[in-house]
Every structure is written in C-alpha cells, then in structure tokens.
Amino acid sequence: MVGAEEWIQARRGLRLGQRLSGAVTAVPNPGATGIFVDIGLPVGGFVDVLLLPSAAERWPTVGTVAEFEVWWADTRPQVRLKPVERQFLREDFDEWLARWRPGWPENVPVDQAWSEA
Q1: Are 76 and 46 contacting, i.e. CB atoms less than 8 angstroms apart?
Q2: Can you tell me whether residue 83 is helix, strand or coil?
Q3: Of residues 46, 57, 48, the one with CA closest to residue 87
Q4: Which residues lie across from 19 on neighbouring strands?
Q5: pLDDT band at 102, cuts 50/70/90?
Q6: Cα separation values, 6 from 9, 20, 42, 79, 116, Å
Q7: Residue 58, CA atoms < 13 Å, CB-side half-sphere
Q8: What is the pLDDT of residues 15-68, one digit of tens each?
Q9: Alpha carbon distance 114, 33 (integer Å)
Q10: How far is it, in rounded angstroms, from Cα 52 to Cα 55?
C-alpha cells in the first residue's frame, strides 16, 4: 500500500490519455467487475466493467500484455485505465463516450482533471 504523499507524486506524472503498457494481473468476476493491471507504478491499474466488452470471453485474460490509456486518477491510490485495443473495449464505446463524456479532456494532468473536466 502506498502512502498518500507517494500517490500524490505518482499521480502528478500522469496525464489523461497517456498510454501505458501493462499486464493483466486479475479478472476477479468476469463480466461483472473489471480487470486489474500492473502498469509498473507503485499503484495498480483498473479497467472498469463499463469499458469492457459485454461478453466476458472477449476480456483480456490474466497475463495479457496490452496498451492502456490513463482514464482517471483521483485521491484513491489506483489508476483507472481504458484499453487501447478495440477488441478489449465495449462494442458501442464511441457512442457511449459521446453520451457520457462529451468533450472529455485529453493530455491534461490527472491531478488537475477534476477541476478542468
């Protein structure tokens, strides 16, 4: 577990949309929760079920190495990620994004995102 100050420092180096390579470390409830990803930082990454395909068999499995984008990071010591590869994204991602995150900023430091988004 990282301390608050270590997380603040790690978070300052992240930008929305920044690409990171990572390995899937856990898929605790396929189709229900999301996946955990090791992105080489002191904190782990997480892809929410809302961003993943509706069919759990299309989710990346443990050990899969893929590219992810920084989707969000707030005060919780965890980096929220979005898969870069379309095969690992929900089928209607573009429409979903337009509906739920219109004008979502990119290339903004995550520690400033909630004040600018």
Answers
A1: no
A2: strand
A3: 57
A4: 69
A5: confident
A6: 5, 19, 8, 14, 23
A7: 14
A8: 989 999 999 999 999 989 999 999 999 899 999 999 999 999 999 999 999 999
A9: 24
A10: 8
Provide the whole-model pTM: 0.88
**pLDDT the model gives residue 90:** 96
Enter the tokens of residue 32.
Answer: 């229900």
Letter for the amino acid at 78?
Answer: Q
pLDDT for 10 equals: 84
Q: Which two structure tokens, joined as six digits, stand for 23?
A: 């390995």
**Phi-psi sector, 17: left (phi>0), alpha (psi -120 to 50), beta:** left
Q: How far apart are CA 116 and CA 82, in angstroms?
A: 20
Query: What's the burial of 25, exposed, middle or buried (CB within 10 Å: 0-12/13-18/19+)?
Result: middle
Question: Which residue matches tokens 């190495």?
Answer: 65
